Request: fold
Amino acid sequence: MSSASEVGGRAFAGPSLSTVFVGQQLVLDGRAALYWPAQRALVVADLHLEKGSYLRRCGHPLPLYDTTDTLARLRCLVDQYRPERIIALGDSFHDAAAVSRLPAPEREQIETLCARADWVWILGNHDPHVPDCLPGRCAERLQLGDLLLLHEPSDIDLPQIIGHFHPKASLRLAGTKVGGKCFLQSPIRLLLPAFGSYTGGLDSDHPAIAGALGAGRQKRFLLHAQKIWQIL
Amino acid sequence: MIAVPEIIAAWFAARQWQVRDHQLAMLDAFARQQSSLLIAPTGAGKTLAGFLPSLIDICRRGHSGLHTLYISPLKALTHDIERNLSQPVAQMGLDISIETRTGDTSSYKRQRQRRKPPHLLLTTPESLMLMLSYTDAPQIFKSLKAVIVDEVHSFAHNKRGDFTSLALARLRQHAPDCIRFGLSATVAAPAALAAWLGPAGEPVAVLRAAASMPPRIRILDSKNRMPYSGFMAGYAVEAIYQAVAAARTTLVFVNTRAQAELVFQQLWQINKDNLPIAVYHGSLSKEQRRKTENLMAAGSLRAVVTTSALELGVDWGDVDLVIQVGAPKGVSRLLQRIGRANHRLHEPSEAWLVPANRFEALECQSAIDAIASGRLDGEALLPGSNDIVPQFIMNCACSEAIRPAAIYRQVRSATPYADMPRATFDALFRFAVDGGYALRNYERYRRLEEHRDGTFTPSSRSTVQRHRQNIGTIVEAGRLKVKRLRRSHQGRIVGEVEEYFAQQLTPGDTFIFNGEVLMFEGVRDMLLEARPVKSGEPKIPSYVGGQMPLSTFLSDGVRALLNRPQHWSRLPADVREWLELQRRFSAIPPQHRLLVEQFPHRGLQYVVFYTFEGRKANQTLGILLTRRMERLQLKPVSFSITDYGLSVCALEALGAAHIDQLFAPEILGDELEDWLMETPMLKRSFRRVATISGLAEQNHAGKRKTLRQMTFSTDLIYDVLRKYDADHILLTVSRQDAERELLDIRRLAEMLVRFAGKTVFKALDRASPMALNILFKARDEQVRGAGLEVLLEQAGLQDQAQQMMDEVRDVVGV
Reply:
């Protein structure tokens, strides 16, 4: 009846979990990031940098610490995994003018991060162009091994790791509802949660998400309090 | 004494009426320019008492422009008053214009009202605030002689009241000599209301009308057994129906909108005589409600099932019976509801109480006892809520260039804000200007602009527009319109639900609305779309509308009743049997000790604390006890508070050895602080505060929030703000807001001292008869089933409870 699952689905839990996707061992981190050991690649989706200042232009006196926070959390992950590649899976910037609004310290933070690994900006619907003034290279999509990394699902006949949908899920535990962002996995698709500090979510039962996942057995991984649970 | 003009005296004489004493007292107060609060029971001609001085003054001296402003808590009430006032004014042949102005008033009419205001304008606090934001507000209000605030008792203890008192403070700026009249039902502490109504430090005078006859109240007898738990009173529907059929017109009051829907549906299922029975509550659309109001006014209804929406003075001719379904929750409130029956002063009102379960029967009996002995419950006035202040600042700035010092004076002239420190005001002002963040990295986005002469004005026209669009929704945070789909996305709006409720739904869920079962499809463009369905697996709406906490006063009454078995004879037999079971199986909560029950249920461990300390205390205790249980590694999962205590659900069982640690009276400074900031309660507060203060908007007309990325929860802002700007004013305000629902630390410590060493601990192998009520509570508002299915499901629950009780009976060997 609802998306909430009963207790019992929590087969595994921890700060991160590993999953096998199309033969590849992947680490799903409870902080909304994916690490691919074989490729030494860290993947994050939907940073939506400068979303706060975008909304603020519309008159909401929002606190503008979202970019600072998003980058600080990303740095923690980079410190821990020490990746050779960092892939931002699209919608890294909330709008076309976002880069021009970046305050100097945040811009430096991005430059520092980019210097620590091979950085790829996958383009998304919010940021179809990432200005050249930023380091890192831009790409519509990236193929690593047999996997395709891109923002929105594509017809290309390869298993895909995608962002865009901001999936979230919930489960009921002893009468209370626990919800959070989630990873969703099907035989051919892996959907990443949004990483940005001001990003909302779309319920994992939404038809758009079902369409993106395609057929086959699905796995759901719920993020809550910096940890990750596999739920039914 | 004031002479009544001939033309008005003649009108009274023609009806063989006399001007009543309290009406004369109001005339006298007006003549002496003495602001006053009139306390009068329903049916005492309170409204006329309020308006009579203005009618006479205009009649006698003539007046150009706005003379009297009437502020009502309900839109419906303004329309009702307009009807009831226009008639005598026309009959007297007076040249007095009367108009209403609410959110429903057309923009054409609003424009005209600004150019040429009527003599008497009937409005709501939100509409008044909107008028005060106009640049021509000083012209509109300068001729004002009197403000009448109706149903003052409904304003004085909540944010809407704070909002209203700020509007009154602003009004005083434009019309310094205008006097304030308040009309109120009988209350326990009139002095608090008088202080609220007057400017800070100048309470108004209190006038009292003669008391009415004491009402006749009884607990309804039903052939069916009264349930152990549940809140829907399905067992009594047949008896309610018969009472409706025997009376001429009946108001059936319930406590929540969900109950209203269900009782309404159940009545129609057995309505073999097709009696005209309607449902009326705040979630229904304006058109639906207007239709029902008109049917009521025309006298063509036999009964209306309603929530507090009809509790206030909407006049509905000759109601001769009031039925209260569910516990009355407060003595004053119950009296107010009962007063709806029989507007004739010298006959007693007739009322039936229908407890939904056996626990509620205790509450009903306590309320009857309290009314019989003339005791009322009252709440203390709270300091004003600070999230409204930035809105007020914006509102003033929309009208004219403002100076902080002047606005500070106005804010402090409202009683709830009399003690606001300048530093707090300055922080709120900075928030209104640019958000007031520690890191001011975006100076160019300001809502208010400072000029060289030290004044502030809105930074753009769109800021003004946006502010005005959001005034109306200021307090009713987070509502979504319900669109009833016929085909594809075509359909009509049938009402509103809380956003909170919409969030609980996933596509395919069903709920009862306006008497039919709707299936939730999704939220589009801020509309909740749902389609009528014949069958399915429906659940009852858990929309919170009209949920009321029990007054502490009444909970004390219940405890006293429990401890006087000699008085149990007045309770229904079912209730006595239940108390006897409780006494044998566990214990009756003692008067001066705290009963704690521990028992397993469905693989989880429950602890119930019967504190009888009121919701504030229970909420605070819940935060502290779960924190301590966490430390004791009992793994608490959740807690829920009830009117009588709280229950904690945990993974490990609490033992007698833990009790002392749980109630250790020393509270570590950070113990509550940290825990509180992490609770969902604080996030809920922040959400309200963010909406009211203008940080996040819910009503952005013309702008479609189609991008899901645009709508993100204030929880995210809360988390980020706590991390980077922990001292921000809105976090402070959220804490204060949450604390309105909590005990202060000193009273919490006192409570722990009272409990320490005085607990009665019962480790049980199953839920006790009293705990059942609490155990099934969480499910109650979310029970599945509609129409017949609801009843079946309720019966299922009842069977389950019955079965558990039979087991208890076996255990105690009855």
The mean pLDDT of chain B is 81. Chain B touches chain A through 43 residues (CB under 8 Å). Chain B has 31 helices and 25 strands.
